[in-house]
## 1
Amino acid sequence: MQSNQIPQHIAIIMDGNGRWAKQKHLPRLAGHHAGAKAVRRTIDAARKAGISFLTLYAFSTENWSRPQEEIDGLMKLLAQSLDEYAKEATEKNIRLWVSGEREPLPPAILERIDKTVAATAGNTGLTLNLALNYGAQQEITHAVNDLLASGKTAITPADIRAHLYHPDLPDPELIIRTSGEERLSNFLLWQAAYSEFYFTPVLWPDFDETELQKALASFQARQRRFGGI
Ligand code: FPP
């Protein structure tokens, strides 16, 4: 049994921006803007807590079905945020990774991702992994297709792992979902095999260091057996 230390990797399903805005009689995009502020607070809180990898579910492959106006607003916000992270990542020694499919992300986003990922590749502090146009079924299918293309006829779990978007990303010990929803929504299906889950009713724009500390305290109180006794 593993003792419960600070997790090396935390992954978060940031949910509830729309409901937060609705409660305040604001447009949904105002909720996403407040959500972007919570992202920055959480990055700082994770660094402070000694987390090495933080994966944030920023846009799923299913989110393209939202109204075009909301998608455009989210893409604009993501582009703005990527510009801000580029600056902050250098100051704070953060390495940016992205998990997801490139198509059909707009060139304005892809260019910013490529630039910031390259510029921060040598940073040794927190790795911020943005799940962007991400779907876990797509990630696993992508891995299997890579293996088929390489001529493999029988594959092992290790083969699949080696063809995930980031084979070097450790599995998240802890997955957090905000807003009271309790499901995985096509997030990290392979990597979540032994993850602990923490669900909170707090809406994502209200998430902060105190909430992260509560999730960590809950994680540390658990016993992880990995199928053993
Ligand atoms: C879920 O809330 C949130 C999203 C679909 C997108 C997450 C985006 C952000 C936190 C903002 C920007 C992100 C970055 C990385 C800068 P929802 O719209 O599904 O909320 P609802 O379920 O209450 O409608």
## 2
Amino acid sequence: MKVGFLQTFPIFGEKEENTQKAIHHLKQLDADLVVLPELFNTGYQFTSREEARTMAEPIPGGQTTQALITLSKEKQMYIIAGLAEREQDRCYNSAVIVGTKGFIGCYRKLHLFYHEKQWFEPGNNGLQVYDIGLARIGIMICFDWFFPEVTRYLALKGADIICHPANLVLPYCPQAMITRCIENRVFAITSNRIGTEKRTDEALSFIGTSQIVGTKGEILYRASPDREESMIVEIDPPKARNKQVTPMNHLFDDRRIEFTFP
Ligand code: ACM
């Protein structure tokens, strides 16, 4: 299975331009599945609830999801992409998964980071694993990585590949995802953005370094901190299904949850 990411540099508020640029790049890729960053079409640093509401779109009816669906069908490619979602007057920091037959699902970020709490509602539709035939896909968004139970939950639900749209500003995630992959024996694709936004007194610089990690923690590719780029690698998703660490140790069966879950 050919999987990868697109590392982008969105311009805040330029939804049409950001979307078209990403689509143009995706059209040139030969891949089964590609992950785009969190909030890839709008940019990140909202300054009010009203601003987020204005830019957010219904899912799946909104124009960005529809454009991704069209591309997905044309390219026979699964796409996971972060978007601001609007439902009535509420907004969520969401990610869609679309595929060759259209819309598949939407995940709403559970763990909101910093000022996101001022614009978005925390996710309320749980964590899902999508079986797309080639692999079982789990989705989490950016700061969710800080909560190891998210990856664990997705792995326990059968995910082979954790697709992880991100807008990382703290430096820790790329190294931490290596551990998430080892301890759950899953693949992970973190798709981050680059650039700086300064729409308030506080500048936010995004760290790039999108990456694809294998089930033993191998970094299959790590991107630059400051360039727009994409990478597609070939992986074998069923490798994630053998949770045997030694002949006598199983990642999930050996857990002692009666002692380790308060
Ligand atoms: C983040 O969750 N965007 C850091």
